[in-house]
Fold this sequence. Notes:
Flavocytochrome C3, Chain A, domain 2; two-stranded antiparallel sheet
Amino acid sequence: MKRTKGLKLGKQAMVWVLALIAIMACVVLAACTSGGGGAAASSAAASADASASAAAEASASAAEEEASASAEATPAAGTPQPDQFGVITADQWADTYPNQYNTYLANAYNVPGYKGEYAEITANEPDKTSKGDIQATADSGKANFLADDQYPEIKVIGKGYGYAKYYTEPGGHTYSIWSIEHNGRLGDVRGGKTGGILACYSCKTPQIHFDAENLGGHESWTIGELRPTAVATDVELKVNEEGKELPGWKQSATNGADYYTENVSCANCHVNDDPGQMNIIRQDWKRVLGKAWESNSLDIPQSAMVCGQCHCDYSMALSKTDTEYNNGEPTSPYEADTDGTLSNMTPEKAYQFYNDHDITDWVYASTGAKMLSIRHAEFEIYYVMEGGSLMRNTLNPTTGEKFNCVDCHMGKKTADDGTEYTSHTWTSPLDDPEISATCDSCHAKDGGIEAYVKDIQAKIDGRNHELGMRYADFIHKFEEKVAIMKVPEGGGDEALLLDEATAEANGIDADKLAQLQEIQREACYYWNLPAADNSEGAHNQKLYTMCLDKLEELLNQGDELLGVTSSAADFEAWNAEQAKAA
């Protein structure tokens, strides 16, 4: 998958754009908000629609969605028997919802592949969790995003964190458990060599959430009685009334291997015993939505809010100053003071939340910067930030309703017997002829939806890549002035580490060092927010442009403090030299 001036081309690229979003695309299963469909806007339609009463729209939308769900899926008499956690698994609904189930199985065609360092592990431990006949293999041709023709800047920006070690094009979410247990981002989970915690399963299986509720409550629970406890943190644990420690979410991810067996499934997004009703399983996301979930006051379909529970930004890093955010449960930066208006859902307030609660994903050893890793924020980018996507208020000519996640990434289908249903194959609209035909009805003037989306990605993702390389060069030049090769204080191998005496000798005192560290931290946030969104720019051009403008401003400030000029060209030259040396 060759990069051409920052633009990823081809169908495989668009599969990646949408593969991470599989959970996000859920009307009856799991959700999504990515790909290129978020950009298929029609300003004329948006203008006409905007004249309608917001309250009327909200009421109508809620009623229509509920009616649609009920009509599409009415459980047969006799609810299936749940598993040991209380979860009714996807295959148990196969007879009741055959069309949805069969399209769910089709996600297995998006087979993940893990080459390189972890290929041997994955070859020896093939997937055993996805339903159907197709299974993951160790080499299915997926792209390595750390390669020099992809995004080599990630290796520098994320140095010391999992993303810099392992970042491949993902497969379908019917492989969610296998994927988390067989990747170099966390280490060898199944082999017990991992720095990951159990919370990493929170978007991979509904079973962990039922487990939490069954065994002491979502916010402070333990599974220590069921299997050996290996806590991957030095933060003091909560204790129960008997004084027993409650590691819960902070246990080693190894403790989930072979214990959780159900991939992303019906119960992730629907009421467990009534799939006709939407449900949010992640409690941190419920707290974020507040009144918006029950009242639909923001005119956002419940299906999209369900999508948002995994396709949003969140952190599993532990606060060093606030016990409310150090139990390991996923933490949303939009949580504080939420009143149902999602007014906290802005980049500025999210970044401030991380600062206020001293949340840090990792410390950059050579500069001392406290770094953040931003997850795929598709929900807030599409619906909220900077006014949301143009598509948010654009009418789908097929349905007459506003475009949402499902329209672009699942779609309505008709079975051979004439039954209409929602597909559960999560895909790019560019890879589904029926969906892209709807897009083309508005985008014929743009050369079709594919040409329209690729043009946006060339501008937005291309600029993100270019600025990412400049940011990596800034970090490299920062290192040159403040770090030396030395043995860590606790012992071990010699490494490039922050040395304050070296910084002083280069004119960087404690105050200037702190400013540069903050610039590195904040720049990571504004680079990572658009970089982690899977539409590569198509969801919300205004928001991406704002983030990249802010990133450029921060890098300019950093250059001035350092007395250097960072550039993508310098990074590419340095990176090429590093490759030769290796």
